Amino acid sequence: MAQADPAQDYATSCAECHGSDRLGGIGPALIPETLSRMRGPNLENVIAVGRPSTQMPAFEDELEVAAIAALADYLKTPLETEPEWTPEQIAATREMDADYVPADAPVFDADPLNITLVVETGDHHVSVLDGDTFEVLDRFETPFAVHGGPKFTPDGRFVFIMSRDGYVQKYDIWSLQQVGRVRAGLNSRNIAISPDGKHLAVANYLPMTLTLLSTDDLSVEKVMPVISKTGVHSRVSAVYQAPQRDSFILALKDAPEIWEVATDPDAPPVYEGFIHSQEKGMIEAIPSSEGLFARRRIEIAEPLDDFFFTDDYRHLIGASRDGARGVVVNLNVGREIAELPLPGMPHLGSGISWDLDGRRVMATPHLKEGKLSIIDTADWSVLKTIDTEGPGFFLRSHENSPYIWADVFFGPNKDVMHIIDQNTLEIVKTMRPEPGATVAHVEFTRDGSHALVSVWEDDGAVIIYDAKTLQELRRLPMRKPSGKYNVFNKITFSEGTSH
Ligand code: DHE
């Protein structure tokens, strides 16, 4: 039997759609950074039988089983050198839709602030739902494999959506039309919008950069290489908007630093570096350039990611590398101030906060253990640990709801949704709306009267619940719906949602 030659097979069968450099073309990038995240059918199976309802054909008639296995292994090998993705290359991918016409007013009767977007990962679309009638006003195609929350302009009119291959799509909710697209990175994590809605930051793994785009026309404003003070190049795990600070906060995957990037053109000097003086809390700072996109480094003991921020954005909790601790950083003084035990890999980015007996508390699920931790943000103690039927991924609540909705995402009970009373911290109901299916991620309508839950399967659905009685009202069929995002809850930074 002939020896398999995966590089040749790639060039013959894959390169035309996925790029000769494996960085994507009309098909997605085929690199380990993307493929290790691939869930569902495995890679060999996709090569053999293709992907239904996409342009990915089946290769089982052309390639032998051993050749398919060798090709799958080849795709999982890292690229030999880190590819460049310069501002010029980014700019060359920018496509603004010629037939886009900005509407003077919403082209529908629904409340534009009660629109909810549903990301349907089954066939890479977003459904635009009227949050009152649950009618689908539009269903548009997204780039392949959207990840993280779409980000809305402060007036709620435009939304930006990012794919793991680094594409950013701009969509006009009033006109129900795509405005344009650009590829801001080659493998990206998430996006954040500046408080004034003018700048969009894209956190990249490949290359190790932060791309800053103008939200107006998706043009490149700046590409910041991410290099630590000691010269370590780092991937950016995530970027977050810090509204009160008028900045972006960056989690660095490979370097013991947190970066703060100013989004206010009139920002006072932010600081290039810090020298800790002996006196507690005092810092000597070395000023860097002033204003827009000036960068400040906060040095920490080890890389942290998956941030939860307090409401005033003075503090963040990040997850430690060993997945056993939460580390609290005071962003004002720029140093770690506390640690708390959170074994089982806390998923702090899904954290939500509320008032409990006069205390400001937050809750976080854990990705490796079936429990939720409730934390007092005044003294950073763990108030309570709630046992659930398995590890969860997302939490949601709303100012007008007394309940926390907590999914179980992994394991045999992935069809479970727990309802927890915010005051007693007890599970008051455990639902199994679609036995055997993954049931996850909740979003509320603007007024908190309804909760929307995803049946995260290819022939899935969004289930609409009465958020008070917890009764199911309707099911909207959807293709593997994942996250759902209500415009009002997002632009007002509702305490019951992650940001
Ligand atoms: Fe996510 C948000 C990181 C795997 C679906 N995810 C986020 C955010 C981060 C993050 C930093 C916040 C960004 C934002 O919204 O701006 N996610 C990670 C990981 O590190 C992790 C564990 C591994 C990885 O593959 O990168 C991971 N995430 C997943 C999935 O496997 C999920 C379930 C399916 C998928 O789409 O890949 C998934 N992540 C989501 C969703 C959000 C998200 C739906 C937005 C939640 C929201 O309500 O805002």
TrEMBL record:
Alphabetized GO MF terms: electron transfer activity; heme binding; metal ion binding
Entry-linked PROSITE patterns: CYTC (PS51007)
Domain Cytochrome c positions: 1-79
Domain of life: Bacteria
Signal peptide: none
Pfam families: Cytochrom_D1, Cytochrome_CBB3
Coiled coil (UniProt feature): none
UniProt keyword terms in alphabetical order: Heme, Iron, Metal-binding
Xref: PANTHER family: DIHYDRO-HEME D1 DEHYDROGENASE, PROTEIN NIRF
Protein name, per record: Nitrite reductase associated c-type cytochorome NirN
Organism lineage: Bacteria, Pseudomonadati, Pseudomonadota, Alphaproteobacteria, Rhodobacterales
